[in-house]
Amino acid sequence: METRDKEINYWLEESDNEILAIWGMEGGGKTTLARHIAYSNWHKFDNVSILENIGSRSNEGLRHLQEKLISDIIEGKEKTNPSSWQNTYTIENALKRKKVLIVLDNIVTKKQLDALIGTGTITQSKIIITTTERGSSKWFKSPWRCQEYEMKLLDEGDSLKLLRLHAFEPNDPMEGYEELEKRALRYCEGNPLALEVWGSSLNCKSSDSSNSRKEFWESMMTSLERQVPGQIQSVLITSYNELQLNSVKELFLHIACFFNGEDKDYVEKILEPDYNAISGIVTLTNSCLLSVSPNNKLMMHRLLQEMGRTIVLAESPKRPGKRSRVWRNNESLDVLIKKNV
User: Fold this and answer.
1) Are residues 217 and 306 in the same domain?
2) From CA 249, how far away is CA 99, in angstroms rounded?
3) Could you tell me the residue range of the domain that residue 37 belongs to?
4) Last residue of a domain, one of 150, 176, 199
5) Is residue 180 part of a domain?
6) Strand 126-131 relative to strand 146-150, pairing
7) Which residues does the UniProt record annotate as the domain Disease resistance protein Roq1-like winged-helix (predicted)?
């Protein structure tokens, strides 16, 4: 935390880089960090604007965001325009004249940036973007200068603190839950959103005895492990939906169902003919949906793996043979031997 604060304060106070690109996995805390920076430093700027969840907005949606941005940084002194390019011109002129702090949350494409802040201008302003795109500094050309910041997942100590914050009331005893807490941490793998959802789900205010509360925890954990909660699924699936090629989406599902933890070269050899795996793995890695370990293994976060498998299960919840992929041993046996299709 101390190292992170030093890096961000240097960017705010001393760096010539106008842009800070915070990138990482969905649910990893990028938006929370960007908000924290804005709320902690608003007094250092003429105006502040936070545009959240930009995502896959339509052109009309982007125009509404332009209007909000203009209203925030110019305080209604200039009228918005019916055309997108005129609004972009207005924003660029404001950036030349004023020192403002802008947060652009969940940027997916360079086109969104060009519409909201233009293609580059000399300014005293600071602009923060959040994205799942690794290497997003390539979106910015001179005179823009961009500093990237990787939003890493929480370590075990911070994960435990966040889980307990949501799972226990202030005066609740925490002794005796160590093994159950470890089970939750193994599943969430440091993802803040998952830790918050799991913690809130485990907060059982109605259980009077310690034994009944532990039974509730065990039952709830089993339920959470069987199906990714909708609050988590809806966030994680955003990166999957934003993949532009169906072949890359199919590759992601294949890895989630069969190849997580397998050797990268082995997977490429098998899947290249049908799914263009060599380029597809690069795309998935750049989108924070996959990583490659130092020993060349494909590593997918457990939540992303479960999200992908949930997509496949939804194809036919009751009849495995109707799904595009079957990976559970008992269901594979039913399909292959018992002809349960």
Assistant:
1) no
2) 41
3) 2-150
4) 150
5) yes
6) unpaired
7) 249-314
Peptide bond into 317 cis (omega under 30): no
Give the pLDDT confidence of 135-150 residue by residue, as tens digits.
999 999 888 999 999 9
Backbone angles phi, psi at 103, to 5 degrees: -115, 120
Q: What residues does 68 pair with on adjacent strands?
A: none
Going by the DSSP 8-state scheme, the letter that residue 171 receives in this structure is T
Q: How many domains does the chain have?
A: 3
Cβ proximity of 304 and 298 under 8 Å: no
pTM of the model: 0.88
Residue 110 lies in a domain: yes
Q: CATH number for the domain including 137? A: 3.40.50.300
Whether 248 and 181 share a structural domain: no
**Within a 13 Å sphere around the CA of 110, how many CA atoms are in the beta-carbon half?**
9
Residue 19 corresponds to which amino acid? I
The predicted-structure confidence for 176-229, as pLDDT tens digits, reads as follows 889 999 999 999 999 999 999 999 999 876 555 567 888 899 999 999 998 889
State which of 117, 135, 150 marks the end of a domain: 150
Q: Is the pLDDT of residue 79 over 90?
A: no
Is residue 137 located within the same domain as residue 20? yes
Residues, the chain, total?
341
Q: 266 is written with which tokens?
A: 């082995």
* 297 and 326 both lie in a single domain: yes
Nearest residue to 231 via CA among 189, 201, 263: 201
